[in-house]
Amino acid sequence: MTRAEPSGPAPGPVLVVIPTYNERDNIRSIVDRVLAAVPDVHVLVVDDGSPDGTGEIADEIAAADARVEVLHRTSKDGLGAAYLAGFARALDGEYAVIVEMDADGSHAPEDLPALLAALDRADLVLGSRYVPGGRVRNWPAHRYALSKGANLYARIALGVPIRDITAGFRAFRRQVLEELDLDAVQSQGYCFQIDMAWRAVQAGFRVAEVPITFTEREHGASKMDRKVMVEAFWRVATWGGERLLDRRRARKGVRT
Length: 256
Prior knowledge:
- The protein is α/β, with parallel strands linked by helices.
- 43% of the residues lie in helices and 16% in strands.
- The chain is globular.
């Protein structure tokens, strides 16, 4: 199914959802930069009970600026669960666009206007490291190779033309999140990003990529681990296998 291409910018207010866990050294700076880059957006910090005081710092920011809100969760349930909680809060409001962004500074808020502008031709816009103009800074060679390999694997297994399907800097039109079955999304880590993009493609939504500069964090520790990578591998393999089976069934149906 292919939907009619959007015409004109997505109307209405924008909510930037920023999940956090132990990001006390980064959260104030990233929120300030978001609001400087696009002053009329709102920011929702979703904190998973950070023991380092990130949630308290976010509360201080929110108390000083009505554009900022904090959603406190009691446990660290993973990136996917944090984003889903943020999406639910956004859909309870009047937001027309919902943005995902990391808290660690790897996504430059200065690239946000380009993502929002691209919504005039797409329903989901990904900030991509791997399209012309995209760049990665300060990553060791093995991390870059792992990311490129993961994206190639997902692109081939799922048969989608997206160059950076694991990208975590993205903007959704509200309709995408309203129509997708978010209750069925259980993936975590960067697999959550693959899952959401894959569901959007399957539902016929238009996906676009715009180049961004991704910069490795300066403060704190990465949340990437072996468990996250294993989950992504087997889930993509499963989805890819189901896709092939569906195509075979469709061909048999045509023959009969």
